[in-house]
Every structure is written in C-alpha cells, then in structure tokens.
Amino acid sequence: LGDRGLEGLWAECRAKSFMHVGGGGRRRRRRRRRRRRRRRRRRRRRRRRRRRRRRRRRRRRRSKMDFER
Questions:
Q1: Are the CB atoms for 21 and 28 separated by under 8 Å?
Q2: What is the pLDDT of residues 14-38, one digit of tens each?
Q3: The whole model's pTM is what?
C-alpha cells in the first residue's frame, strides 16, 4: 500500500495542478513553488530579527529601572 499510496498522491497532485492551470502546467508550477520557498525564507529571517530587537529592548528597560532606583 505504501508504494501505491505515493503513486496515487502524485497522480492527484498532477491532476489538480492541471485543472487549476488549464494547459502548460509545468512552467506555472515551477514559478509557484519558487515563490512559496522565497516567502518562507523571508519570514524566517524577519522572525529572527524581531526576536533580537525584543531582547535588546528588554535589557534597556531593565537598565532604566536600575537608574531610577
């Protein structure tokens, strides 16, 4: 069932992509996959930068509280 299941999934993916595109599906399929990969990489980089900024802000707030005391 494992091999047959994989072949069935590939056949379903190909059929669905052809239904959405309606001819010449190979070129448009490659473009869609590249766009999705680029978006995921950009989101991961943005999340890392935001986390670093938040850590710096917390350290600055703690130092200000120490000076006020």
A1: yes
A2: 776 666 555 554 555 555 666 666 6
A3: 0.19
